[in-house]
Amino acid sequence: MNLLIIILAITILAVRIWKYQTITHFFSQVSPPLPDEIGQDNDNIQISILQPILSGDPTLWSCLSGNLEMVTSYQCEFLWLVDTDDEIGIAGCQELINSYPERHIRLLTLPPPPDKISPKTYKLIEGLKQSQGEYITVLDDDTILPDWAFEQSLPLLNQPEIGVTFGLPYYLNFSNLWSSLLAAVVNGNSLLTYIPYTYLIKPITLNGMFFVIKKEILAQINGFSGLENTLVDDHAIAMRFREYNYQLKQSPVCHGISTQVNNLTHYLNIINRWFIFPQASIMRLGNFQDLLIFYTIVLLPTCFPLLIFLYTLIFPSIYTLTYSLIYFSFSYWMLAKFNQNYLNQATPNHKIILLIILQILLPINIILSLISPKKINWRGHIMEIKKDGTFTFIQRRNQN
Q1: What is the CA radius of gyration of the chain?
Q2: How far is CA 302 from CA 15, 147, 262, 367, in A?
Q3: Which residues pair with residue 49 across a beta bridge?
Q4: What are the CA-CA distances from residue 238 to residues 190, 212, 272, 291 (Å)?
Q5: Inside any domain, residue 188
Q6: Is residue 336 part of a domain?
Q7: Is residue 132 part of a domain?
Q8: CA angle 90, 232, 166 (to 5 degrees)
């Protein structure tokens, strides 16, 4: 029994170290382009940035304006897709348009989608029809791209087997306790989740907050049409590309996200939504190899910090305490280094410890999402997700 525990302990620490090594290796292969390395022909290439927008978060406007101030050598057109009944959203967008006259922004208002039709995909389909660029970027309204994001991501699409490339998210908002806790969940797990498994298999899904596609390839796969009925749009889009034998490509672009979390209920609603989505998407993959990698490399290691914490608590000894100290000290050092080198120091140094605490608590969040009702609240829209990823509106936010 003791031998088994020792082997398990060594394995857990080895997995941690391996993940650290894959992440540092991944970023060592790329570097942000220097101004004199940027192609002079880029200004002849246009990118259509599709942004489905829904008001309700106070940081929304700073996110949108942050992208308007992004530095890039490409021509960009922003298509802001807003519901006709979102008066606050329309007014806020119009104010930003007036504040940035040098930017090419088109405000497209659309009627609310029918029941069982994804609001985001519904808007993307219309935005794609109106787009004029050779490249299509899907960008969530809470996402802020760094300078030169397109210079790092678009060249990856020159490989003929690559259909879509996508970024790595981290959270920026530490303005209060609940926003800090949400940010800690992402900043402590994002790189560990998205990068290491791609050293074993090709990416099996994508980050739907930011991804880029060649418009001609999107036309070949019938665009976003036929995906309207699933709420887990990022995974549905990833599967569409894979069905057409295109690969997904993880880009090195790390992009910020801002969400203002008001209270415990709001925090739990968001966390619950995040962990409900995989139950209707990745966890239902039919490919055995994909499922094996997902469960052993992505899902299972999220339980290790809690397992170590509980074992040390229940069986305290000089050995368990020493092991825990080694494991969590290495984790702290690793996350601090990621924060400094790759995530733009988004997490304040005195809050790095939160990343460790939320890693310990993460399995509890996952278990709660497994047993809780499959309902999500997206800025006032309440929806129920079915096992196959389809959904129905329970209540729209403008309903009396």
Answers
A1: 21
A2: 11, 32, 26, 12
A3: 78, 137
A4: 18, 12, 22, 15
A5: yes
A6: no
A7: yes
A8: 80
Among 250, 231, 236, 334, CA closest to 282:
236
| Nearest alpha-carbon partner for 77 in 60, 102, 112 | 102
Query: Is 68 in contact with 95 (CB distance < 8 Å)?
Result: no
Domain that holds residue 95: 42-293+372-395
Which residue bears the tokens 């907050």? 209
Q: Which residue matches tokens 């009702």?
A: 373
| Calculated CA dihedral for residues 173, 152, 342, 59, nearest 10 degrees | 0
Rounded to 5 degrees, φ, ψ at 125 are -60, -45
Q: What is the CATH number of the domain that holds 120?
A: 3.90.550.10
- Residue 210: inside a domain: yes
Residue found by looking up tokens 């298509």 in the block: 79
Query: Among 201, 206, 207, 250, which residue's Cα sits nearest to residue 27?
Result: 250
- Phi, psi values for residue 386, rounded to 5°: -95, 170
Rounded-to-integer distance, Cα 184 and Cα 161, Å: 35
Structure tokens, 25: 């290796």
CA atoms within 13 A on the CB side of 365: 22
Structural domains in the chain (count)? 1
Q: How far apart are CA 379 and CA 362, in angstroms?
A: 23
pLDDT digits (tens, 9 = 90+) for 105-129: 999 999 988 888 889 999 999 999 9
Of 382 and 258, the structure prediction assigns the larger pLDDT to: 258
Question: Residues 47, 150: contact at Cβ < 8 Å?
Answer: yes
Q: Is 212 exposed, middle or buried (0-12, 13-18, 19+ CB in 10 A)?
A: buried
Q: Per residue in 311-323, pLDDT tens?
A: 999 999 999 999 9
C-alpha–C-alpha distance, residues 307 and 65, integer Å: 43
Least confident of 66-70, 200-204, 288-292: 288-292
Put residue 327 in one of left, alpha, beta given phi > 0 → left and psi -120 to 50 → alpha.
Answer: alpha
